[in-house]
Specification:
With 424 residues, this protein is of the alpha/beta class. It has ten helices and 31 strands.
Length: 424
């Protein structure tokens, strides 16, 4: 036993953190794997009892606190300044300045919480992107979503407690990512927030416009594409039951269209980080680590979305007239032909969708935006930097990013010829 209260040889990593100036309460209870680089943890970071750090990519910025409410496991995560992870498991995720997550969290790879985004206790996230100030309540599962909207800490998009994003279907596919708000408007931090009422859910893949309010206790099963609408989810007249159509994927056109909108928005966010965000994050090792983490998360999301869509294309492409004859309505042969076309077209679609946006996409509007953006001092906090822009610059930036989204969406052939007719 030494003066630091360390007797386990594996606590060498803890000793390195303490010598660097990290505050470690009850050092004997904290575990740090050998691959963690103490130089990537800022002096003054606070680590409470029972915490575990793993992964060479782990980086923790100044003012951050781990385990304030319960033990925390951090595995290959990047944290900016003043990030509070109060209890739970966090892996392969990035948390920008001021992000906070309560105890009981389970946060898996591909998750990105931007400035001031937060979640209360017992929240599950995976490949989730929350824009600045977006707030999630308690007892929430919100995997495979991108959510934006709002203007600041007192005017933010919110997910109520006991909310679920349903991201697995009876067909056993996960081509279900949902877009709540969007990237081109959301990055400007001047859009009307979105509210998803508690004790409810969203069935993916869905798209909700800025200003949407989904009433508490409601399961939203549809897109809401007009801004400022209240979705009450009132049941339609008619039978409460109907036969389960296990073989027929109705609504396939909408499913692929929404997925390509999601992919396009992730591509737009990649371009935003690569060209715009990068300027604010150079010269500070913790911010640079967060930039790298954000890019890694977005790459992970693109790979996963294409994988899930490919699985679905293969699944429906294997359908036959016989397998559909008892469960499908309308022209079964036409539906089967559309499924087969989808399967055959998918490799080319996936290849095109996996490519980064062209430098020519929206280049005129991008240059108009950058002419103002390049005047913003390096390392200016992102919300403050956006607030300095004129409406003209914001409009140009949004138009550029919309062009990036459209480049991806227009890859998808016309639904009627490739994926059949829309349906619910």
């Amino acid at each position: 036993m030494n003066s630091l209260g360390l007797s386990d040889p594996a606590s060498t990593g803890v000793r390195a953190l303490i010598e660097r100036g990290v505050v470690v309460h009850c050092p004997a209870s904290v575990y740090v794997e050998e691959d963690v680089d103490a130089r990537r943890v800022a002096p003054g970071v606070v680590i409470h009892p029972g915490c575990r750090l793993r992964g060479a990519g782990t980086s923790i910025g100044p003012g951050s606190v781990l385990g304030e409410e319960a033990p925390v496991t951090v595995e290959t995560c990047r944290l900016g300044r003043d990030v509070f992870l109060k209890g739970g498991y966090f892996a392969g995720s990035t948390f920008l300045d001021g992000a906070k997550v309560g105890s009981g969290a389970h946060v898996r790879p591909g998750t990105l919480l931007e400035e001031g985004a937060s979640a209360a206790y017992c929240v599950g996230l995976k490949q989730t992107v929350l824009f600045p100030f977006v707030t999630i309540g308690s007892l929430v599962n919100f995997c495979d979503c991108l959510m934006s909207g709002g203007t600041g800490p007192k005017d933010h998009s919110e997910v109520g407690s006991s909310y679920i994003h349903f991201n697995f279907t009876p067909h056993q596919d996960k081509a279900t990512a949902s877009l709540v708000g969007d990237v081109p408007g959301g990055v400007m931090l001047d859009k009307v927030p979105i509210f998803l009422g508690g004790q409810g859910g969203l069935v993916g893949p869905a798209r909700l416009a800025f200003g949407t309010v989904v009433a508490a206790g409601v399961i939203c099963r549809h897109d809401v594409l007009e801004e400022g609408l209240l979705y009450t989810g009132r049941a339609t007249p008619g039978s409460r039951t109907r036969p389960v159509r296990k073989q027929a994927h109705v609504g396939l056109a909408r499913l692929f269209r929404n997925n390509f909108h999601y992919l396009g928005n992730v591509r737009a966010l990649q371009a935003w980080y690569r060209i715009v965000r990068r300027r604010l994050m150079v010269g500070d090792p913790y911010q640079e680590a967060c930039w790298e983490g954000a890019m890694t998360a977005l790459d992970t999301i693109v790979t996963e979305r294409l994988l899930r869509l490919g699985e679905l294309a293969h699944l429906v492409g294997g359908r036959s007239t016989g397998s559909l004859s008892e469960s499908a309505t309308g022209d079964v042969h036409e539906m089967v032909e559309a499924y087969h076309q989808l399967r055959d077209a998918w490799p080319d679609l996936a290849s095109l969708a996996s490519a980064e946006s062209s430098e020519d996409t929206g280049s005129g509007q991008r240059e108009v935006f950058l002419s103002e953006w390049e005047k913003v001092p390096v390392l200016t906090p992102y919300p403050e930097a956006i607030a300095t822009l004129t409406q003209h610059a914001k409009a140009a930036g949004t138009a550029w990013l919309r062009a990036v989204v459209d480049d991806v969406v227009t890859l998808l052939p016309k639904p009627a010829s490739v994926v059949g007719k829309d349906g619910h």
